[in-house]
From TrEMBL:
This is Ubiquinone biosynthesis protein UbiV. HAMAP family: UbiV. It comes from Shewanella yunxiaonensis. Its cofactor is [4Fe-4S] cluster. The keyword 4Fe-4S applies. Pathway: Cofactor biosynthesis; ubiquinone biosynthesis.
Length: 283
């Protein structure tokens, strides 16, 4: 199984981001996605910084894909998006249909990210006609769905988010700004205070969700590492580790070496993969 490292979805300081990718550069991870996918107000690391990081990682022999925003809300974000797609050097992960439309218009191949709702083979085949080389399965779908959609053999690759907090939804409202009693436009980049998001619990103090700016994530990490042989059998090409902290690099490195556990980690979830509620832990 090929192992990829997904884009950082949290708001880290510029120095922490550069330290993280310096460590990635020294790892055997073959494919790295990077870029701001959650909120355009997070300006600590600018697009030029991501391009510089991409070139650094590429110089170490890695495949690099630049990921775009999951929710395009303003004309300025669309203008920035077009500039990103016209970068001329790196492949793009399109996380919004606006990115797909621009890529199709420009004739640029792209990877379809997990936040675009692809729920049948006909849609995926049409996206492939528009230049899609690979798609990342939406996180709420199952092994059975993926097996069916990859039959007969497709002319595009499939990738699964196999470890990390699942990106469940994106909203026009910002939950972190609301938590701090701030307006979205004057948030002061409050997300930087929560490098792994804000844990939301039920009234019984059970972990429920993780709020990350405008993004809602699963409270628990999804863990599908023990399912890698199953994924290989049904035609999955890439297993993605969605980074949470520096330890994510270690985990992705172990997977690259073929080292993975037989059972799901404690406190992890894997329900969607098994046709259950996503927060469930199926042994």
């Amino acid at each position: 199984m090929n192992i990829s490292l997904g884009p950082l979805m949290y708001c880290w300081s510029k120095s922490d981001v550069f330290t993280f990718y310096d460590d990635v550069a020294n790892s055997p991870i073959p494919l790295v996605y990077l870029g701001e996918t959650v909120c355009s107000r997070r300006r600590q690391v600018k697009w030029a910084d991501y391009v510089a990081l991409a070139k650094m990682l590429q110089s170490t022999g890695k495949q690099v894909v630049l990921s775009t925003l999951a929710l395009i809300e303003t004309a300025s974000e669309q203008t920035e998006l077009r500039k990103q797609l016209e970068n001329g050097d790196f492949a793009i992960e399109a996380n919004d249909m606006a990115a797909v439309a621009i890529a199709n218009e420009l004739g640029i191949p792209f990877i379809c990210g997990p936040t675009i709702n692809n729920y049948n083979r006909a849609t995926l085949d049409k996206m492939a006609e528009w230049g899609m080389q690979r798609f990342v399965m939406p996180v709420d779908l199952s092994c059975d769905w993926l097996k069916a959609v990859l039959t007969p053999l497709a002319n595009f690759e499939a990738e699964v988010i196999g470890y990390g907090h699942l990106p469940l939804a994106h909203s026009a409202r910002c939950f972190t700004a609301r938590l701090k009693g701030l307006a979205k436009d004057g948030c002061g980049i409050a997300c930087e205070q929560y490098p792994q998001g804000v844990l939301a619990q039920t009234q019984e103090h059970q972990p429920l969700l993780r709020l990350n700016g405008i993004q809602t994530q699963s409270a628990a990490c999804c863990d599908l590492r023990q399912q890698i042989p199953v994924m290989e059998a049904i035609g999955v090409s890439w297993f993605r580790v969605s980074p949470v902290n520096q330890q994510s690099i270690t985990m992705a490195t172990e997977l690259t070496r073929g080292e993975f556990p037989d059972t799901i980690a404690a406190n992890a979830c894997n329900g969607y993969w098994h046709n259950n509620a996503g927060m469930e832990r199926v042994i």
